[in-house]
Specification:
binds zinc ion; about 260 residues; 3 domains; flat; alpha+beta
């Protein structure tokens, strides 16, 4: 059994690809999606209890792998781990011992492949009726080969400790890794309805602050809580993370739709 335990998914995918008709290939897509999801979630789980599963369990793998990358910038690259063996007197002997291989697909590859598999799993939309996506055994075989390569990894590494910090806007937990503290990264609130950005500023002894300096928040017209607007373009709509009131954000902002004035 490999460390990611995706053999059963891959074996079934292989069998379906061999059958090769459209129905079998669709089933292969499903098995391949399961293996991708399984690998990415297991990798995130390695971060440990500091990052509760509830944070990412409903996410699509592309978003989950991006989160992992924000923690560990090299998390989507293959790594070979060797140690240098010491002699009895403590000096390096020059002998290297192979510890294992960490393998992971790139975010770009995952995005492309996951979307491609997803396309075949849905009935075609009206706009696609003229040229429905063609399911293709060669494409699926290529995806299977890459998953198989990653599944032969002998190590699942995690190099970072993670600290929970509250979003300055909605107060929900965000997670910041040691690399992000060292690099003074920008960390975005995970709550989709919030998305507030924070500058991570390193203090001393591993302490840091997550502040909103330079980013914009405005109070909600209905509940008064602040919500972030730094990513909103002129004329775009944005819902309050707290009460879901929609606002249109422009040079000014107001409740949307504009409430009718009372004529009493
Ligand atoms: Zn937030
Ligand atoms: Zn509100």
């Amino acid at each position: 059994m490999s460390i990611y335990g995706v053999e059963d998914f891959l074996a079934r995918a292989k069998a379906y690809i061999e059958i090769g008709d459209e129905n079998a290939l669709r089933h292969a897509c499903l098995e391949l999606r399961f293996s991708l999801e399984s690998i990415v979630y297991q990798r995130l789980r390695k971060i440990g209890d500091k990052l509760p599963r509830s944070v990412y369990k409903s996410w699509q793998p592309q978003k989950a792998l991006k989160l992992l990358l924000s923690f560990e910038p090299r998390a989507d690259q293959d790594i070979t781990l060797d140690i240098c063996v010491e002699t009895v007197d403590g000096a390096p002997s020059g002998n290297r011992q192979h510890i294992g291989d960490y393998k992971m697909f790139s975010v770009k590859w995952l995005n492309k492949s996951y979307n491609k598999l997803g396309k075949f799993l849905h009935l075609t939309s009206l706009s696609e009726d003229d040229s429905p996506p063609q399911i293709n055994a060669t494409d699926l075989q290529e995806i299977l080969d890459e998953i198989e390569r990653v599944s032969t990894a002998s190590l699942v590494l995690t190099m970072n400790s993670i600290t929970a910090v509250a979003c300055a806007v909605c107060k929900s937990d965000m997670y910041v890794s040691l690399s992000q503290i060292e690099e003074g990264s920008v960390v975005e609130c995970y709550k989709d309805s919030c998305g507030a950005k924070h500058n991570i500023v390193k203090l001393d002894e591993g302490r840091f602050t997550a502040d909103r300096i330079g980013f914009q928040s405005v109070p909600c017209n209905k509940c008064g809580k602040s919500f972030s607007i730094e990513d909103v373009k002129h004329g775009e709509l944005k819902d309050c993370w707290n009460c879901s009131q929609t606002h249109v954000v422009g040079w000014g902002y107001s409740a949307w739709p504009i409430p009718e004035k009372s004529t009493v």
